[in-house]
Design brief:
By secondary structure, the chain is mainly beta. It contains 5 helices and 24 strands. The strands form 8 sheets. Strands 10, 12, 13, 14 and 15 form a 5-stranded antiparallel β-sheet that branches.
């Protein structure tokens, strides 16, 4: 937004006493021969002015200002903003310093922009994350949840403050995640550095598999029972279960909603339970038989359990191979050849 600059509050008192171009004593044409460089060029008004300092000088608003170029006539606008001055107001300020005959080129107003460097809020936040990573070995940016005590706002600096954000003091509590970091930005020789302080908390997070509802003991985990969330690393055990590893597994004990799943919380689902009717599968070379049985133990896939053959009433052992299925291995007799030789 362009805002008007009030001459009454910004005009700096005239300090010059003499006119810029005073008439010299006439000389005969035979004695002095004027060269093109000796001819005083007319001052020309500029339509737009960019300044870096706090003052607007004559040399900023007109070309060919000559010796008056360094005279200050106005206060600059605020950092990063633009102000407007009517041409008549500018000419009046110039006349106060005996600068006359300005070619306005039909310009109706002069705009003045004060150049600045703006540190965006996002840039400051990224610098904080980078500082914590480099100094404390925290995870990647996506693994950090950073909360600032106050909303980070963009910082506007004079244009000569071109230096990088340099850490001058830094504190970080690993347990609580509290940080307090101060930065400096150099403005070059002869200028005091600008300071910036940020405080807040930074928590390193990891991807975790979290229950969406309470799960009872021996209940099987379904796809709808879990979600993937980022949780503080301190809350997630080293044996955290992945989503794919958790689906289809059975809870070893009652689990609460919102709990991060661990491998120790899960077990293979029971495919055979005690006193359950099961199918006994006999396999041997060229033989495949089935019989009815009753499980005497509970077991998951691959577990060896005792079962009762309901036909022979004998207790045998087998391996759980599916829901309600137990494989019985039949040892085929081997024919031992007579090794005697006549």
């Amino acid at each position: 937004m362009i805002r008007a600059l009030l001459l009454a509050s910004t005009l700096i008192a005239a300090a010059g006493s003499g006119a810029i171009g005073q008439t010299a004593a006439p000389a005969s044409q035979s004695q002095v021969e004027l060269r093109p460089s000796d001819v005083l060029k007319s001052p020309v008004l500029r339509p737009h002015v960019e300044v870096t300092g706090e003052l607007v000088r004559i040399g900023d608003v007109i070309e060919n200002a000559g010796a008056a170029a360094g005279i200050a006539i106005y206060r600059s606008p605020d950092l990063g903003t633009t102000g407007a001055l009517p041409t008549a107001t500018v000419l009046a300020a110039l006349r106060a310093h005996q600068v006359i005959g300005v070619d306005t080129r039909d310009i109706t107003e002069v705009t003045v922009t004060r150049l600045a460097r703006t540190l965006a809020a996002k840039e400051i936040e990224q610098q904080v994350v980078q500082t914590l990573q480099q100094r404390h070995g925290l995870g990647e940016p996506e693994d950090l949840t950073v909360n600032f005590d106050r909303d980070v706002e963009a910082k506007t600096l004079p244009a000569n403050y071109t230096g990088k954000l340099q850490v001058v003091s830094e504190k970080f509590d690993v347990r609580s995640g509290r940080f307090d970091i101060s930065y400096e930005i150099s403005g070059g020789e002869g200028t005091a550095p600008a300071r910036l302080r940020v405080t807040g908390t930074a928590i390193e997070t990891v991807v975790a598999t979290v229950l969406t509802r309470p799960v009872q003991r021996n209940e099987v985990i379904k796809v709808s029972d879990i979600v993937i969330e980022r949780r503080p690393k301190s809350e997630v055990a080293s044996d955290a279960a992945s989503r794919d590893a958790a689906i289809g597994m059975q809870a070893r004990q009652t689990l609460r909603s919102g709990q991060v799943l661990r491998s120790a919380d899960l077990a293979k689902p029971d495919l055979v339970t005690r006193d359950q009717g099961v199918t006994l599968i006999y396999r041997a070379a060229g033989i495949y038989l089935t019989a009815r049985g009753k499980a005497l133990d509970t077991g998951a896939e691959g577990d060896v359990v005792n079962v009762l053959n309901l036909q022979s009433k004998r207790t045998i052992t087998g391996t759980v191979i599916g829901r309600g299925q137990v494989a019985i291995t039949v040892i085929s007799p081997r024919v031992v050849a007579d090794a005697k030789t006549e």
